[in-house]
Amino acid sequence: MKLTEVRGIGEKRAKDFAKLNIFTAEQLVRYYPRTYLDLTNRVSVREVAHNDMALIACKLVYVEPLKTRGKLKTVRALLEQGRDNFTAVWFNMPYVAERLKPGEYLFYGRVQNYYDRISLVNPTFERLDSNQKLKGLVPVYPLKSGIAQWVVRDAVARALSVVHPESLIPAPLLTKYKLLPLTDALKTIHLPATQKAMQAAAERLAVEEYFALIAAFRLIKGDRTEARVNRYSVTEREVAAFEKRFPFTFTNGQQAAVRAIYDNVTSPHPMNRLLQGDVGSGKTAVALTGIFMAVKSGYQAVYLSPTEVLAAQNYEVIKRLFPDFRVGYLAGASTAKEKREIKEALAAGEIDILCGTHAVLQGDVLFSRLAFCVCDEQHRFGVAQRNSLTEKGESIDVLVMSATPIPRTLSLVFYGDLDVTTIPDKPAERIPVSTAIIPPRKYDDMFGWIRGEIRRGRQAYFVCPKIEDDEGEATSAEELFEKLRNQLPDIRFGLLHGRMRDREKDATMSAFKRKEIDALVATTVIEVGVDVPDATVMVIYDADRFGLSQLHQLRGRVGRGADKSYCFLLTESSSETALERLNILKSTSDGFALAEKDLELRGSGDFLGTRQSGKFLSEIKNLKYTSNAVFMAKKLVDEAFERNLDAENIRRAAMEKYESLKDVVLN
After folding, report:
1. Which of 31, 386, 416, 567 sits most deeply, having the most CB atoms within 10 A of its CB?
2. What is the DSSP track for 365-421?
3. Could you tell me if residue 501 is inside a domain?
4. Above 80 in pLDDT, residue 290?
C-alpha cells in the first residue's frame, strides 16, 4: 500500500518519509522505535551523572542564532528547570532551530556536566503544552531531515489500522509454540503499555525476521551435492614445506584449519568454508596455504581484499611467498593499460594468483582454470558476489574469512551456507596490547605521553563512535579532528570517516602507512587487517558506547609490529555497568570470550544486528531482543522444512526478500 493511501499522509509528507527510506505503509509499520521515553521517570538535571542519558522537563527560554564554523553548524538553546539554568546543543542539525519556540518541553539526551556547567547534547524533545496527551511509554524514532516525532507517531498509528501483514511462519507452528500474532506484536512495539509487553513484542518480531533470514540461508545452501571438478594433486608433505616459508611456526589452530581445507579440496565436493579467528590469529597465512594447494596442483587462485590498500599489501606478501608462481594485481585504480594486460594474461593462463578488489568481479575478467578463491569477508563480500565468482570457473573452492568473533552457536545460524572453521589461538610471539581506562582528569597526561611516542617514530589512532540518526558519523570525527589539531599542533593528523569516498579513504590509509601522517582520527570505518607496524597507540573516545567485540577489534589495529602497544579507553561515564564492561575488556584479550560476554551483557540485536548481518537485519536493528529469538527461529525453520509446512510460500517469500539483494552479507 502506497504511503499516500494512509489517511493524513499527503505528497509533501510522503517526501519527508522518503528521506527515511519509507515508501509504503508496510515499511512504515516496520520502522521501529530506537528507544522509549518513560514519562513517569523525569529527573532533576542537577541530579544526573555526567555523560548519562536523562529525561528532563524544563522551560525553553531562548534559541541562539545558528552558528557555522567550517562544515559544523551549531544550534544552542537556553533552558530553565526551577533555579537551574543550562543549555541544549545540536551539531549539524540546523533545522532544529525552526522547531524550537519558547515554552515548556521534555528533553531527552546525554547530560554533560563540566565544572558545574550543564548541557544536553543532541537531545530529542517534545513540547509539553501541545502534547499533554503523552503518557506512559512514548516511542522515539530514529529521524532526520526535520521530520518531528509526533508526525511519525500519528502516521504509524494510522498505518497500523489498515496494514495487517501475515506471518511467514506456518500457522501450525504459530499455534504449537503459542507465538503472539504478528499484527499484535506490531501494535505493541509502537504503542506498548508496559516494558514487559514491549520486550515480548520485540522478541516476536525478531523471531519473524530471523525465520525469513535463516530460511533463505537454508535455501541458498541447498543439499550441497555438487560434485568436484578440480582434482588437486598437491601432497601433505608439499603443504608442510610451504608452511615453513613463513617466519613463524603455525599454531595448533592454524594447523587444524589447514587440515580442514586440505580435506575439503581433496574431497568429492567443492569447499564453501568460513574461516574465523581472533585478531592476530594468522588467518591470512592459512588462506595463503590454501592458495598454494591450488596453484601447486596447476590451477589459478584469486585473493579478494576489501580495499586497494589491503589488496596492495597482500600482493606484496604473496609475491614474496610465491616466488616460483606468477602473481597479478587488479584494482579500480589500475590504469587502463594495466587492466587490459592483466585480463589478457589471466585468460591466457599466464597468471597463477590474482590479488584484487571488487574490480575482479567485472564480467570481462576471465580465468582459464580458476579453482580457489579467498574472500576477506570484512569488505562485506556476500553470497551473490561469491556466486558471481563461481561463474568464472567450475566447482570453485571458496574460503571466506572473518575477523569478527561470534559465539559458535550463533555462527552456525548466521553463516548458514558455509562450513565453519575457527582458529582459537594466537602466535606465542605476539605481544599483548596493554589496555587502560582513562578518565577526563588524565587526558592531558595521556596526550603528553602520546606526543613522546610519536617523537620516537610511533603512530596513533584516535577513534570516536559512529553517530547515528540526525548527526551522521562524520560529525564527531570532524569535530575531534579540529580539536586535536589545535591541541597538538606539532602532530600531523589525518581524518577518516564513512562519508569519504573509497579513494579518499585509501589515499589516507596509504599516507598513514607511509608515515606521512602521525595520527589518524577516524570512526569505526578503520579497515580490519590493515598492517601498520608503527601504529602502537589506540585511543577510543566514549568507549562505553561500543560493544566489547567492537572495542576488541579496534584494539587489534595496534600491536602488529615488534614494539609494545597500548589501547586507551576514554570515558566520561560514571555508570557502574559501563565501567564493568570496560574492565572486562581490560582484563582479557580473548576475542571469543569477549564475544560470549558481550552477548550475555547486551543480549540484544545490538550484537546480532546489522554489524553482523549487513542489510539482512536492518528492519529490526533498533529492537532489543535476546539470542533466544535467533534459536527459536532456527528451530521453527528446521521444523517447517522437516514437516514440509507451507514450503513453497516460505521459499518464495524468503528468497524474494533476500535473493534480490545485490550486496548480501554474511558477516
Report:
1. 567
2. ---SSEEEEEEEGGG---HHHHHHHHTTSSS-EEEEEE-----HHHHHHHTTTSEEE
3. yes
4. yes
**Where does a domain end: 135, 153, 169?**
135
531: nearest Cα among 459, 594, 424:
459
pLDDT digits (tens, 9 = 90+) for 463-480: 988 654 444 344 478 888
**Which backbone phi and psi does 401 adopt, to 5 degrees?**
-115, 145
User: Domain limits at 86?
Assistant: 41-135
Of 660, 547, 656, 528, nearest to 598 by C-alpha is 547
CA-CA distance, 592 to 594, in Å (whole number)? 5
CA distances from 606 to 11, 25, 617 (A): 34, 26, 11
Look up the CATH number of the domain holding residue 107.
2.40.50.140
| Residue 494 and residue 519 in contact, taking contact as beta carbons nearer than 8 Å | yes
Residue 248 in this model has a pLDDT that exceeds 70: yes
Q: Which residues contact 442 (CB under 8 A, 6 or more apart)?
A: none
pTM as predicted: 0.63
Give yes or no for a contact between 385 and 396, defined as CB atoms under 8 angstroms apart: no
| In the block, residue with C-alpha cell 574490480 | 359
375's grid cell: 574472500
Q: What is the CATH number of the domain that holds 539?
A: 3.40.50.300
Going by DSSP bridges, is the β-strand pair 137-140/117-127 parallel, antiparallel, or unpaired?
unpaired
- Is 60 part of a structural domain of the chain? yes
Q: Is 560 helix (H, G, I), strand (E, B) or coil?
A: coil
How far apart, in Å, are the Cα atoms of 27 and each of 169, 181, 186, 498? Answer: 19, 18, 12, 26
With respect to residue 324, please indicate whether it lies within any of the assigned structural domains.
Answer: no
Domain boundary residue, one of 135, 158, 177: 135
Whether the Cβ atoms of residue 360 and residue 330 lie closer than 8 Å to each other? yes
Number of H helices, E strands in the chain: 24, 21
Predicted confidence (pLDDT) at residue 666 exceeds the cutoff of 80:
no
| Burial tier of 652 (Cβ tally within 10 Å: 0-12, 13-18, 19+) | exposed
Report the distance separating Cα 297 and Cα 229, nearest Å: 13
Cα angle value 388/392/395 (rounded, 5°): 95
Q: How many domains does the chain have?
A: 2
Rounded-to-integer distance, Cα 512 and Cα 498, Å: 17
Residue 292 has which C-alpha cell? 598454494
Q: Give the pLDDT of residue 38.
A: 81
Nearest to 322 by CA among 294, 360, 349: 294
Pinpoint the alpha helices (H) of 435-587. 443-455, 474-487, 502-513, 548-555, 576-587
Residue 427: half-sphere exposure toward Cβ, Cα within 13 Å: 18
Per the listing, cell 570515558 goes with 571
422: which strand partners?
Answer: 276
The answer to which of 79-88, 303-312, 313-322, 422-431 has the lowest mean pLDDT is 422-431
Query: Would you say residue 265 lies in a domain?
Result: no
Name the residue among 529, 513, 527, 509 with its Cα closest to residue 283.
Answer: 529
* Average pLDDT of the residues in 17-44: 88
Q: For residue 362, what is the DSSP state?
A: S
